[in-house]
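step 3/5: co-fold with zinc ion
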Amino acid sequence: MNPLLEAHRHTSKNREELEGSKLCGCCCCIGIFKTTEIVAWTGLDIDQLDNPETAGGETALCPRCGSEALIGDRAGYALTPDFLNKMNQAWYQTTRRIKLPDRQA
Ligand SMILES: [Zn+2]
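step 4/5: write C-alpha cells
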C-alpha cells in the first residue's frame, strides 16, 4: 500500500492511538504539538454516515485548524514537517485550489 495512504488511515478512529501518544502532527496545518492539546473528538466517519453507532467521538480534531488530520507518534511515522507536508500535498491541497477571479477592478 502507498505509505501515505497507509498513514492517512491513522487520521481517523485514532483516539486510542493518540491517547497513547505524546506528540501528534496535523496533516492539514502542518502543526506538531502535544496530544494533550487535543480537546475535541468527532464521530464522523465519511464511510458510515448513515450509521449512528459511529458517532462515538473516536476521531481527533486538530485544536489549531479543526481538521480530522492528526497522526500520533505511536502510529510509527516520523512526525516531521517534511512528512506532514507530503501528507498535506497528497490529501488536502487538491481541495484547496480556489481559483480567484482574474478580472481587474
Ligand atoms: Zn491542524
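step 5/5: annotate
The first strand starts at residue 23 and ends at 26.
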